[in-house]
Amino acid sequence: MKEKYFEKEDHFKKESQHFYAAMYLRLSREDSDSGANADSGSEGEKDGAFRAESNSIGSQRELVRSYIREQEDIELFDCYADDNYSGSNFDRPEFKRMISDIEAGRVNCVIVKDLSRFGRDYIGTGRYLDKVFPSLGVRFIAITDHYDSFSADAGERNIVLPVKNFINDSYCRDISTKVKTQLDVKRRSGECLAAFAVYGYRKVPEEKNKLFVDEYAAEIVRRIFEWKIQGMAVAAIAEKLNSLHILPPKEYKKSMGINYRGGFPGSISPKWSSAAVKRVLTNETYLGHLLQGRTERINYKVKKCVEKPREEWVRVEDAHEPIISLDDFAIVQNLLKADGRVSPERKEISPFVGLLFCGDCREQMVRRVNRYKGQERVYYICSTKNRGEGCSRHSIQETSLKSLAATVIRQYANRFLEQERLFEHAKACEDSLRGAAGHKIEDIYTTEIIRLRKEQDRYLSLCAGLHEDLRSGVITREEFDRLHDGFEKKAEYLAAAEEKQRQLVGGMFKAGVINAARLSALRETLELKEIDRYTLASLVKRIWVYEGKRVEIEFYFTDRYQARVDFSQQPADPGRVRQQPAEMAEGTAASETQGGA
After folding, report:
1. What is the 3-state secondary structure (H, E, C) of 288-341?
2. What pLDDT, in 10s, does the model give residues 123-139?
3. In whole angstroms, what separates CA 495 from the centre of its chain?
4. How far is CA 263 from the centre of its chain?
5. Predicted model pTM
């Protein structure tokens, strides 16, 4: 609370030797936490506690007050206290008020406990002490540093004072580095440092850096993902949430008694927006992962933050319980790349929205309805042709496409399920994916990793041998450059292939190769009379339509399917197993081609 000791309406005269003093006090968070940051042990704790108390606002006030009592020529004008403000800059409310009083002529003396209480910015502090205060005729006193501008000599002004300011600045920089390092360690250990939990989670009361599932909000998140897979556009999902009177994330948190302050702009009538829905659909937190460290401050003196490249974000997987499965998340990310809008006159959702593409120009197909003599005929054509920008129609009827897709999807599901032994094995591994049989699958793919590693080492050895050949005159410089470049490129290709193989193995076991839930869905597919939108979007990544009504269907999970086939065909000697192609990455799929409709 501000203390007002003296008020004077008339400005003091510069020639007067009587000083009206501003008592300036400051305490930052780092100063108040110094006891907690002290070294372990009773002696360290006592020292830290002593420093915290000696730096407290109350302690500073008593010290300055005692000093003023002993001075006959100094009278206290007012007390200015900035509690919990850093000394790295001068953007402090009470400091600004003090400067305003100085400029108005009410104050001609500033008294602080020490230079660090005034500020820790070397340049800023120097500017005030060397230019601003002298030009305004202000006396500056730092009690414990034994500095008084009224009596200081040239040595104190030009040597001692700058050195102390530099040390204070260095302290601030050191504290900033330590805090950054500590926060980075916490991020990498999977602690959530965000002030508020993302929608769908809450913070554990006893451990503020851990998340647990908020069942109500989590169910809303699951429904949002389900609606997107069913073919709803992002805007349509937002409208549906609002029609159901479901509170948006910000309002929901406030309704839970959380003093939430979000970084996204709000509105007078809070509602779900397309942007809010898309943030939910693209947030990897729902997979159980934590992505932190997306921004950083320019430096310890500037509060402004800048975005960091995605590769520099701190990513910790399996940091908390997931809400959305990896498969559903991958499906939604694929659907978000395509336009899923529904025309105003149609309320039903086409089963092919966001999945159907021209096989030649790779653009989306658009739905067209032809009404003639009371009959309706639905077909799809290339959107490039529809805009009159080239390509050709690639026309195909919706009824023919549905029949064709159903046939191919059932064939795909049949091949997954025709080996009942694989299905039983998947169910057995559901609770223990790293069991004995699981290790056999891992061994098969580890064999390929070992082979790639040996091949890579061989080419690196050849590169090393070329240097000896060049020194011995066995090869010329031109031959060296040509061979060395070729060997290096081959080694780089093999390193990339090895990394992809490792990702495949990790993905296989993380997803249970092809989990029992997915296999159950495939079995249900065989019993459906007509393939519905959800089944279609869950299994099919893309449908490519070519001229002549030739259709190519690209499925999800084909790498895991191949893993199952390889395992079922495993010979006695693991080294003779047919290898999975290294270039087949997670999410790519083989194609099924069917003739004309």
Report:
1. CCEEECCEEEEECCEEEEEECCHHHCEEECCCCCCCCCHHHHHHHHHHHCCCCC
2. 888 889 989 999 999 99
3. 27
4. 14
5. 0.57
